[in-house]
Amino acid sequence: MNEDIKKVHSNYITKYFSIDNSIPTSPIEDILTNLKSILDYTKNLEEDEEGNDNKLIEINKIQEKIKTCENILRTQNLNEVPVCKYRKFEKVYNMWCLDQSEKNDEINSFLSQHPNKKSVTSFFNMHSLLSAKFQDQYNDIYDWNADIELIYKRNIFISIGYKLLYPLGVLETNFNNEKLKNFLLKIYSLYNDLPYHNSFHAAQVAHFTKSMLFMLDLNKKISGIDEFCLHVSSLCHDVGHPGLNNFFLIKSENELALTYNDSNVLENYHCSLVFKTLKDPNCNIFANYPNNIFITCKKNIIRAILSTDMKNHFEYISTFRTNREFIDYENLSNEQLWQIFCLILKGSDIGHSTLEWKKHLEWTLKINEEFYLQGLLEKSLNMSKSFLCDTISIDKLAISQIDFLKHLCIPLFNELNYISKNNEVYNNCISAIENNIEQWEKNKNNQKNLGLQEKYQDDHTVEKIKF
Prior knowledge:
Elements: H1 3-11, E1 13-16, H2 27-47, H3 52-74, E2 78-86, E3 89-99, H4 100-113, H5 123-130, H6 132-139, H7 148-152, H8 156-169, H9 177-190, H10 199-215, H11 224-236, H12 246-251, H13 255-259, H14 265-279, H15 291-306, H16 313-323, H17 334-349, H18 357-380, H19 394-419, H20 424-442, H21 452-455, H22 461-464
Antiparallel strand pairs: 1-3, 2-3
Helix pairs in contact: 2-3, 8-9, 8-10, 8-11, 9-14, 10-11, 10-17, 11-15, 14-15, 15-17, 16-17, 16-19, 17-19, 19-20
């Protein structure tokens, strides 16, 4: 590509990424940056005592900033491109780019098909028409069943984490964007490469959590700091998971079990990693919060993550069921809000039960692969195999899954549906669970091997597994 072509091509691309803060890292950040500039210009207008010329200049600046925001919001070709790696990890940030050349091609195509629009439709109106498809996709991005792999493509955890936390964090005074990036990268690096309890599971749970806020009509009723803490909890709820359950850690007298006195062992460990990460000044996303606010945030994050321990599953459900009729959902207290948040996070954590059959089966096989690996480890240590850790055929798995869906999943989502309007939780979640139960019923008499024995038939497999 010669220099002239490079120069022309560069005029067609608006980039949204940099390691420093010289360029916004996403379209939404660019919009927020422009809106901040507009506020500054407005303040200058209020303070200007010299004359109309200066005011006209400031007004023109405001108009340009608004047009920039409009262009970003209306683009139909907003793409993610991997641009960097973080140290030894294959962790990739996303760059968003607006390809002006493709936009112009689509406008010309639109005009050729609708010649009558040439004289009456402004560029911005046509741009809005052309971008309808993108707007539909954007509005659906928090749909419960949205395909986050398709939407975010690469480095899903970082993308979702940034999308959820940045708009909330930037509302705080002197919010440091670099610390948010560092925090997400550090947490991401602490997730182990496991079949199920990995960073993608965390990203999926974070997506479900945000979606459920919309379904329960809570997104407009909660404070930015409460939502910020909820998303930190969802993103970090399984950080550092070793692929072994609490029962094994306690039974084997693992160091973690000894540290946390056999109580919510993994969940306490996840919390510990979160706050150890925040101790790093470069990762402390709460650095500018007053100490009393941070203490409250810490308490809420710990509470939410601890709630994901399935040992207390029925207690959470029964407690909410007992109190739900006495709650004013239009005027929730902070205690009531976090009680609901815990239910949301718990539902999101087992959210794969609500996915369509193929995806639900995929996630089910992943968690059972971890169970099977634990069973192999237990065998190598001459320990009796834990419950579910010797699953070798579909028929046995089907029976356990039917029980899981009927007695753990549906009761929890029924409580969330009680809060929702128009049975949204039933329509998006419970109906899918019921369908998955039907599918498992069909597999009860299927003796097909899951393939785990063949995959791990090497006697030395356990030695290769890093727990």
